[in-house]
Amino acid sequence: MRKNSRNHWKNKLFCMAMAVMLFLMIPLAGMASQTSSELKKTGKKIDELKERQEEAKEQVDALEAQESGLQGELSELNTQLSKISGEITDLEQQIAGKQVEIEVTQDELQNAWLQKEEQYKNMKQRIRYIYEDGGTNVIEILLSSTSMSDLLNKAEYVEAINEYDRQMLTRYENTCEKVAQKEQILKAEKENLQTLQADMEQKQEQVNSLIAETQKCIQSKQEEIANAQDAVAAYDAQIAKMKAYEEELERKKAEEAKRLAEERKKQQQQAANQGGGGTVSANTSDVSMLAALVECEAGGESYEGQWAVASVVVNRVRSGRFPNTVSGVIYQGGQFSPVASGRFAVVLSRGANASCVQAAKAALSGNTNISALYFCSASAGVSGTVIGNHVFY
User: Fold this and answer.
1) d(Cα 340, Cα 344) in Å, to the nearest integer?
2) What pTM was estimated for this model as a whole?
């Protein structure tokens, strides 16, 4: 009777101790959950910042492409302006040349008119001399001839002088007319050149206006690029700040995980001191499920590592802090990632390999190789028993 009473009080004290430990574990688990939640928010914020930064970079690239296009247009406009300026200079030289030709032609025309007037004056003087001022008229000259030959010679002389004067007068008149025509042609050519010059100067003004507008657009694009680059730099600073915060949260999470692991290890040891072991009630379906989970979690590990994973599930069924069935432990929310991802269902439907089935059966028969309730990647930095790529704690 006393023995039963002592066992009763022993069990009662154990339950109370477990309750206190669970109570102490609640804040630590809550802190870990809060840190994980903050890490998730921070990671999401970093992703959002990176996405916005990429958009800003794309905007910089687009603006730089637009600026490059405008620079190309400006180069073409400068080429056009240079060509137009050259043509205007050439036209100015041609106009200056035409002006010189016109001035020379005008001098020629003036000289031709003077020669014509001089010829006309000389012609009148000769006529006056022959017919009026000589004191002897033509009839007298002719009658004074001593012979017919002399008469004809004198008549031919007078006629020759008159014909020469007429020819020279006609020649000078023709020269004046040709020079005058040349002057008109040169003036018309000069007017055409001046019209072309006016057109080219108008084009020059238009190109200058386009150049000014393009330069203004380029300056505007450069300002937009500078603003976009500032935005990229600002996102860089924000991302760096958030990453530093994320690293701090990761450090905090690792510390919390370490403390939590230590507390769980103490619980595990206390549970082991209170007894345990023995066969876990399981049917064929439980064996299949446990074997499938072992393959998902440790299919590439040694048999000892597979056996340890199966032992963790069996230890949870025995602990009283988890569901008391194999299926309950496996399907408990947020415990085994292959269950959530759907990989567990695939392996379960085709059946696990022989090694994993053997490990599951060994653990379910009460033959466990480890007393841990948890396991994770050995690279996580958690203290415990390392088997292969996992640490058990």
Assistant:
1) 8
2) 0.43
